[in-house]
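Researcher: Structure for this, please.
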Amino acid sequence: MLLAPANFVNSNFLHVNRMSMGCARGALNAATRRFQPGNTASWEFSAFSQNGEDGIIEELLSRLKVQTRYFVEIGAADGLENNTAYLAFVKKYSGVMVEGDPLKSRHAKRVLWAMNHGVHYLHAFVEPAKIGIILDRCRTRTPDFFSLDIDGMDFHVAQALFAADFRPRVVCVEYNSAYGPKAALTVPYQNSFGYGDRRSGLYYGVSLGGWQLFFARLGYEFVTVESNGVNAFFVDPVHVDLDVTGLVRIDFAENCAHQYVHPGGWTEQWPLISGLPLVSVD
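Model: Predicted structure, token format:
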């Protein structure tokens, strides 16, 4: 009889333990929140997401008129702490997770292979010229949900995907609160962009105003940001039964991790990166 290597068994045990903890955390958070249909902050709960994204995603998907039960996430980490693990392991959605870090990818493939054969995990450093690698793996170009969080060339990757007729119904994208609530800015395209400016860790990604302008031009509606100031949510009104004008929502929130390193909010953070190369989203 062949025995699995000890490190493989230990790794799988840790993943199963983390999965159990995530499910328990999600159940507790969902049960204790004071849910209000018209207040987006009350939708939040975390099972596997870093912040309250799981609850917002679940609420928005529940409002879909027709469901594909399919997702795409770029920046999926180790497959357990991201915006689609709840869909994959609790809701049993199918989909594609993409991650550029080789170590995280190896861990994730073990978990996904055992827990949900409908999820394909792709190890790839995503660049605009290579989005075909992702689209070729997708069962549909109109998934219920899409998440993008790669701490860098997010805007340029999104441009390439949506130009290729990619049309998710609910979208979650990371924004950089250090640019402030109104500016429409992003970092210019660079090959192999590393996370952040070494001096501040604030130089990356897209402003909230940049995402709002980008998605508005595609016919999407802005829903909210989550309370820790990391992600923004958009919906295709053709497919989602939601009156965004009637919502009590968070229009802008400061990134909690930024605040820890650079207290004072975006007005104190912006001068640290304002002299670095930035381009307008237009």
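Researcher: Any notable elements?
Model: Residues 6-280 form a domain with the Rossmann fold fold (CATH 3.40.50.150). The first strand starts at residue 70 and ends at 74.
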